[in-house]
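idk why but the lab printer keeps eating my pages so im just putting this in chat instead. protein + S-adenosyl-L-homocysteine:
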Amino acid sequence: MTQKQWYATQVKTTSSQREAIEYGLMEAGARGTETIASHDLTQITGYFARPVDETRLRGALEDALRIYGCRTDKALQLNITEFADHDWLAEWKSNWQPVAVGRFIIGPPWLSETEALDSVVTDRGSDTILIRINPGMAFGTGTHETTRLCLKAMQRHFHGGSFLDVGTGTGILAIAAAKMSPALEGQTALTTIIACDIDPDAIEIAKQNAGLNGVLDRIGFRIGSVDESTESADLVCANLTEPVIVALLPALLGAACGRLVLSGILAEQVEMVKARLLELAVIDFEIDQDGEWIALTI
Ligand code: SAH
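predcted complex ->
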């Protein structure tokens, strides 16, 4: 089988022109772009399936810069490279190895179940749960400490019932909850799972991931956050950031009729969260740490 051959074009530019150049490369027929940004240089590579006509490409980039209102007086540096026998997509994919968190294995959708399971553990138990997440789309692929702390807390404290995922990102925690409590055949699920996010794109991505896992109809997705009117759940997970957690704390406590998991807190920020909890008369919680990250379970 012959490998796919890609033609890569690199454009050195500045951060203010980033979006325009990415757009221009796609307009010129690129199948994808990759951007490497350092403090003083932005280098954007467009990947084309066919050799690129430099005049046409230059025209597309100049049009894009004009549409985006960028100055075009400086000549663009085009650096056209042919990546023979190089399948960049395959390479990117091969960098996404499944990860294990307790009984969960989180793998990308292109690996078969056997490949995903075999690549991680040797002595897995029968209660292993495979979660498929399309990486690179939203936060929550299972590699980040803050997500891992939530998944671990869920394993200790989620035994069915209702679950609320505040800031669902890829949907990973809601999908984990749905897979921990499979719907009984012929019966409606015993679990109510709600996932919300203020970012509409994240909700779209989370829905796609839920579909990949066959649990789309088990999760109620909603654009938004928590407030006093939010229906309460037995377990609430909020993997956010410290300022957002502190601001939402009364609403989060109100939404949890069982336990509340707060994650996304740096070790140096934990005292601020504890102080706010104390003000709200909460003195009893578990603390888990992974690297510099802390999760509190109330
Ligand atoms: N639950 C996932 C993703 C966490 S990233 C995981 O554990 O890996 C945090 C998410 O919270 C982001 O998708 C962000 O859009 C969302 N978010 C930020 N502020 C929010 C708020 N006030 N209410 C709800 N979601 C919020």
